[in-house]
Specification:
- The chain is of the alpha+beta class.
- α1 packs across α3.
- The longest helix has 12 residues.
- It starts with 8 loop residues before the first strand and ends in a 7-residue tail after the last helix.
Length: 138
């Protein structure tokens, strides 16, 4: 995420606009640090930058249209070295039982098939998610 105006998000705690910070919360409220969770009527999405040396996951929530058009990054995972199976287990804990409506993956990396593998990185994450009962709401 950059610091441009296109990346501005509204803080769920105080309604201020903020930009440029991974996590998308305003400094005074520190939503992520306060363990803020989106209300159950918000749409949750998971954004995955795959890999084994530095995978990263953003947990994003989108409010109902009546509250405006914005998103909030309410949590993140940046565990360092982790494979798809390890990351799926960490994601399952962070989900806290709430479903995701969409998964977004870096397709440039996801389409790659590493040496010694028969499936792509995206297919490997799909397998790990399925084994951990992580699936989007349909």
């Amino acid at each position: 995420m950059g610091t441009g105006k296109g990346n501005r998000v509204r803080c769920p705690a105080c309604n201020r606009m903020g930009s440029g910070l991974l996590g998308g919360y305003c400094q005074p409220c520190h939503s992520r640090q306060n363990n803020w969770q989106p209300p159950s009527n918000w749409t949750r999405e998971l954004i995955l930058d795959p890999g084994t040396s530095k995978p990263a996951v953003l947990f994003v929530a989108i409010p109902p249209p009546t509250l405006g058009e914005y998103y909030v990054v309410y949590d993140e995972l940046y565990p360092g070295r982790a494979d798809a199976d390890q990351l799926a287990k960490m994601i399952k804990v962070k989900m806290q039982g709430y479903p995701f409506y969409r998964f977004i993956i870096d397709q440039r990396a996801g389409k790659q098939t590493p040496m010694g593998f028969k499936i792509s990185i995206a297919e490997n994450y799909a397998r790990a998610f399925e084994e951990n009962n992580i699936s989007p709401v349909s």
